Amino acid sequence: MACRCGDSSRAAPLSNENDDQAQPSLLVFSGGTAFNGVVEELKRVTTRVAHVLPVSDDGGSTAEIVSVLGGPAVGDIRSRCLRLSDESTCEALAVRRLLGHRLPHDAVLAKENGIKRLELLSLYEIVEGLHFLWKDVSQPYRETIRAFLVYFQNEFLGFCGIYSTTTFFADTPSSSQYFCFSNGSIGNFFFAGARIFFQSLDAAVFLFSRVSDIPAESLVLPVVSTNDRLTLGCELWDGTIIRGQNEISHPTNGLLEPINKESSTAALPSRIKRVFYMSSEGSNLLHEVFPVANPIVLEQLSKVDSIVYAMGSLFTSICPSLVLLGIGEIISSRSIPKVLLLNGSHDRETSGMSASDFVTAIANALDRTYGDPQKRLKKLPGEYVNSLLVPRGGQVPVDTECLAAQGIFHVVTVESILDPKLGVIFDPKSLVEALVNLIRERKYSRLR
């Protein structure tokens, strides 16, 4: 089932080859953070975008939900849905604020006994409909959202063996023994409640899209349509195996704190060779599993005007969507723009890498080069990436000769912004203009 507003039974095709004036259609592989800053600018130009996101994140409040109630990670999907949500009315803005709200962040109070925890008090007010965030939310929306928040709460209470909401919200430590609500996302709680109720991730995305009033042409697609937990692993070149997306990308000290991927963390002992999926209890290569790609993702890959690999965490946000069977096969068969948005700086995953190294990593993921030999492809890098958009002044070296050897000759420099926390990032408006121009130029050149 496609997950979009307006049709619960199937996805509308994003591309129409006979309509040259139509909005360009894109499929974007991304995570839940870096590309978010571009989404709102992009939807001013086109809403015909399929956003493909991983469901293997195991950090933040997502980790708490997954560890207690199981299921796939929904944090990245929730984040993108919020960015795409309607803002045209007071009620739409109120719903967006509510589902984007996080509980108070106080790790001490969250774990301290004998004190009424601020985050639980805030959650109680929201679940009971008493919080100021419900202002401007009409009764139908209010009762729909509350129903799934209550369902999430009841599922959690049952897991904890607590059968009274009075006990749950009392001055006792019982609930915090099982779950840390600090900095918890109301949108994640709503999403989890819907997924468990329907026993379907697709249905939960559809409901969230309806409630958020996402444009009908915009699809938010989990790369794997599953109701089970997915665990990401990586193999380093020195043979080390690391389990868990958070441990690969930005390991923490065990406290539930807001993720800062740019914060100082210890370097990996070796470069990343590949990422793969592991069984829930696995710890080595013998526990590799092979989830099936969402069929709607495969369908949209065969229809869109352009494929985009967004900036962000290369190995933990982008590559998890590329290593699945069928993805590389379809991408390599399409004669359309296949655009890499190059990061403006390095992170723990990509330290020392050049632009051509990014391309190699993407090609290896799509080829499944270092996995099961029977599932391996042998395509050229240029069959997967044929254009690069580069932020001006970025720290990642653009080695044009190596890119040319890979079959990539179209490299465009885009205006950038120096963010005090993130470093060099694309200027969103300039990036969208460059991307749309590239797509239209390629499309018209094929028609001549």
UniProtKB/TrEMBL annotation:
CDD domains: YvcK_like (cd07187). Pfam families: CofD. InterPro entries: CofD (IPR002882), CofD-like_dom_sf (IPR038136). SUPFAM superfamilies: CofD-like. GO terms for molecular function: LPPG:FO 2-phospho-L-lactate transferase activity. This is Uncharacterized protein. It comes from Spirodela intermedia (Intermediate duckweed).
